[in-house]
Amino acid sequence: MSDPIPPATTPDALVVVAQQDQGRVRERQEDSCWAQRVGRSPVALLVVADGMGGQRGGDVASRAAVESAVATLRPLLSAIYPVPTLRLPGEAPLPAEPFPWEPKRKPGHYDLTPAADRRNLLLRTLEQVVTDANAAVRAAATAIDALDDAGCTFTLALIVGRALYLAHVGDSRAYLWRQAQLRPLTHDHSGAAALVAAGVVTPEEARQLPAAHQLYRYLGGAPAQAKPDITEFELAPDDVLLLCSDGLWDMLPEVEIARLLLAHSELDALAAALIEAANAVGGEDNISVALAHIGGEA
User: Fold this and answer.
1) Helix crossing, 58-80 with 116-143: angle to 10°?
2) In this predicted model, what pLDDT tens digit does every residue of 239-287 receive, in sequence order?
3) What helix, strand, coil percent values describe the chain, rounded to 5?
4) What CATH number does the domain containing 224 carry?
5) Predicted TM-score (pTM) of this structure
6) What total of structural domains would you count in the chain?
7) CA atoms of 292 and 44, how far apart (whole Å)
């Protein structure tokens, strides 16, 4: 699930893109992804959800999670920067709703540095987004009689000026590319990751474990299983944010992801190159990539 993003009008503009591929092995696409910049503003939303591999409700779960998140955040984002085109595919635009961000008087410049109360409101909103997405996954699974067979990961990035807010459940990942260094921003909620963190196995050994991708947090289960990690980071000009499903990071070592980030400055070409590289080494899972390039002006 993705929405076409208009090209940046200047090199300093925020640019986002989402691409996905079925891969070489899977019989269907169970990932969903989304990337939306709000008009010409420095505000954007990116989401990647990976349906639980091989389960018959995986595609339903990931789609329900992403659609729920976009629907929940749409009024908030359109109020920060009202535009008539922020909508789900096939839906009419909704009017902007009041939200406590005050624009500066100079046209085209917006005060998007959250004060403490605004920041707290955003963080609480992201927690509610995950709660609503979990409920949406369970409702969608019940509708197809697959309550025990539908779940998904969920990684969401909200960019507001120089502030990045992440909500994360499962083992899709978020990375930050800054000054030619790749930094992971999320931690996998998997048994293998827990063993690596405890020093029981190495990351290479963890990949070979039978339950390498068994998740202890995901959407589609009980509320405790859907508890998100909510984190925030400060962005800098020329940062690149990467969200991806395990169809990318499990196929490509981080050094290869970094090499491709270094080689491609244009986001559409970068996303295509990442997907092509994952397919070239087997393409064993669906591949989803959502990218954002942070412009020079907030």
Assistant:
1) 150
2) 999 999 999 999 999 999 999 999 999 999 999 999 999 999 999 999 9
3) 35, 25, 45
4) 3.60.40.10
5) 0.84
6) 1
7) 8
